[in-house]
Specification:
Distance between the termini: 60 Å
CATH topology of the largest domain: Rossmann fold
Number of helices: 19
Shape: globular
Low-confidence stretches: 84-100
CATH architecture of the largest domain: 3-Layer(aba) Sandwich
CATH class of the largest domain: Alpha Beta
CATH superfamily of the largest domain: P-loop containing nucleotide triphosphate hydrolases
Length: 445
């Protein structure tokens, strides 16, 4: 490492160079989880998650070596910890994901199902089991970081494992555009068309970037039609609904809406905790105190990528400083990353009153020790809504209901389970949430 670079700043510079080299989405998907194991005169030893390390080293080894050379000097050698077979190798073409390029970590088994994503998960699994027969096209809509790409890779992995030889291809609109431009300039359009129009399943990420690309839109339109008319499966993801893609041609918007449009909403508290627990298990991290996961799930609410990033940062502080992996460390790191927001104007008492009225019971009954079903279920719903609609801590919610921390967590988990199981329960809870929000808005106005 050059003498003028400190390890922390050098690692930051190297990560920035990698981000520029591979693009933001690829970087976040594959290279952001990398950690430095050893950094000395002999070179740089990196570590990736155990189940993808060999694959990441093979695919990105050469670009890692190139970027490290640019930032740290040509003499630096990059390797991966703990496996002799993870020497830098040649990455495949950036135009698309070949069949072996699906992230093995992104499977249906590793996808945490909650109220906000159960439809998208079920539809994706149905498509993987019966390509071209279930929902075609399947259009997955969500803001960034909520699992759209995970589901695309899960479909790809499932078809490769159980699809009886079906061919599956993944691409982003950006990669599709670049591939198309190169095909035009090299007069190889027939090869380009064959590559996309003969896949049994085509998985396309980020279709919002079709906007204002007239020639690419035209080619994409014909590719879509060629696949759809021959019964081949299309799965598309986007950060907005088809009708909101005003810069995309109407004929494409209509085709996007012709199958199933499934949205993915931010995970609720219980789902966020489950996601964190699964990530810790995958990374081999033992967290003895559940309050650590609860604290992260309380503070990071709208993005799975940020949620997992917070856990990684806390574990990194634990590893680098030797401090216990406890609530004190988690709170300190979270205060720097995700400061607490000002308290919501919506009070827990407002939620208790609304829920009690909805279920035709009194507020004193709602917070009483009674375990009768007519009381216990409304109480659990009220606790769930207090967790989702206010910024109150679990301890504050427990105090408002005369319950302890464990009871609050159990109530949130129980409601999340029933939301995933029953559309009637989901409709009731959604109606209640809308009613409470509308009442607050009228009062504020």
């Amino acid at each position: 490492m050059p003498a003028h670079l400190e390890p922390t700043s050098a690692w930051r510079d190297l990560r920035a160079e990698l981000r520029r080299a591979v693009g933001e989405s690829t970087y976040q998907l594959w290279l952001e989880p990398l950690e430095v194991k050893v950094w000395d005169a002999a070179g740089l030893v990196l570590q990736a998650p155990p189940d993808t390390q060999a694959w990441v080293a093979k695919r990105f080894g050469r670009i890692l070596q190139t970027c490290a050379g640019a930032v740290l000097g040509a003499a630096v050698q990059v390797s991966f910890a703990g496996n002799a077979d993870t020497r830098p190798g040649s990455p495949p073409s950036p135009d698309h994901h070949a069949e072996s390029d699906f992230n093995p970590r992104y499977s249906f088994n590793q996808f945490i199902i909650g109220d906000g994503n159960h439809l998208a998960h079920a539809a994706s699994l149905a498509v993987a089991e019966l390509p071209g027969q279930a929902y075609n096209p399947l259009f997955l809509h969500a803001p960034p970081g909520l699992g759209k790409t995970h589901l695309l890779h899960a479909i790809g992995n499932y078809i490769l494992a159980f699809g009886a030889g079906a061919t599956v291809r993944y691409t982003t609109v950006e990669a599709f555009t670049n591939h198309f431009i190169r095909a035009l300039s090299s007069r190889s359009l027939d090869t380009f068309k064959h590559a996309y129009r003969h896949a049994d399943v085509l998985l396309i990420d980020d279709v919002q970037f079709l906007a204002s690309k007239a020639k690419t839109e035209e080619e994409f339109f014909h590719t879509f039609n060629a696949l759809h008319e021959t019964g081949r499966q299309l799965v598309l993801t986007c950060d907005r609904l088809p009708r909101q893609l005003m810069a995309v041609e109407e004929r494409l918007r209509e085709r996007f809406e012709s199958g199933l449009v499934a949205d993915i909403r931010p995970p609720d508290f219980a789902t966020r905790v489950a996601i964190l627990r699964k990530r810790a298990s995958l990374d081999g991290v033992r967290i003895a105190n559940d309050a650590v996961l609860d604290a992260i799930a309380e503070r990071v609410t709208d993005n799975i990528r940020s949620l997992e990033g917070a856990l990684i940062r806390i574990v990194a502080h634990h590893s680098l400083t030797g401090r216990p992996l406890d609530l004190a460390l988690a709170s300190e790191v979270l205060d720097g990353m995700h400061p607490r927001r000002p308290s919501s104007a919506l009070a827990i008492g407002d939620i208790q009153a609304a829920v009690a009225s909805y279920y035709d019971i009194s507020v004193p009954e709602l917070i009483s020790p009674s375990r009768a079903v007519r009381i216990a279920w409304p109480r659990q719903v009220a606790i769930h809504l207090a967790r989702e609609l206010t910024d109150s801590s679990l301890q504050s919610i427990g105090d408002a209901f005369d319950r302890n921390h464990a009871t609050v967590v159990h109530a949130c988990r129980r409601v999340s389970e029933r939301l995933a199981e029953s559309t009637d329960v989901a409709a009731d809870v959604r109606e209640l949430a809308d009613l409470i929000s509308a009442t607050k808005a009228d009062r504020d106005y």
